[in-house]
Write the structure tokens for this entry.
Amino acid sequence: MGTRPTDTGVRGRLGLIVPSSNTTAEPEFERALPDEITVHAARMELESVTVDALDAMSDGAERGAELLAHADVDAVAYACTTGSLIHGPGFDAELEDRLEAAADAPAVATARSVVRALEALDAERIAVVTPYTDDLDAKERDFLEAVGLEVVSIDGRGLEANTAIGALTPDDAEAQVLEHVDGADADALDAVFVSCTNYRSLAAVDGLESKLGVPVLTSNGATLWDVCRASGLEVDFEGRGTLLESSRS
């Protein structure tokens, strides 16, 4: 990494590697971060959220990391949940290693970030809400259970087109969570996870935690928490939910 001028007003730079059809990760990161930490993205081709398309997409990840190195980023995040879990546990860690070598900077992948976040919250029993089809929900359940989590339930919207996922709102996320997890269910849970970096849900976290009384994390929230941790950048995420607020301690 190069030597950064000290008079630019920039305290840190985060690199994101995102699917080409993702319209959510960059804006959610930018809204949550202070102005002096900037976000820079590279894109990988993806239009439909299917197993085959996600598998092919990962071939472009290392090139994206190499290009982000040109921007002298402090860390890189592979911001795609199912894209980093479809091959099961181990692939996410391997992906992080490959991206770290390509970017010459710390790297995280969303699936691994979610696991780290749940571990940080001491969460074992979780409910999962997704926009995905049944086959991807099954792969997500398999991944989460293989790393030792108890998936009490998982609910998907059945969407395949990533633009349709990106059109969902935080209100949609809140409604789906509340329809799937009521107060009685929440008493038996350690956390609720809203999956997909293209599902606009980070803004719903604080309100959902107030209603359910358990931590709620999202794919972008977990990735943001983890990439800031990896980069060494300290950020005050007050009002962004239990996970992100824990980064202050």
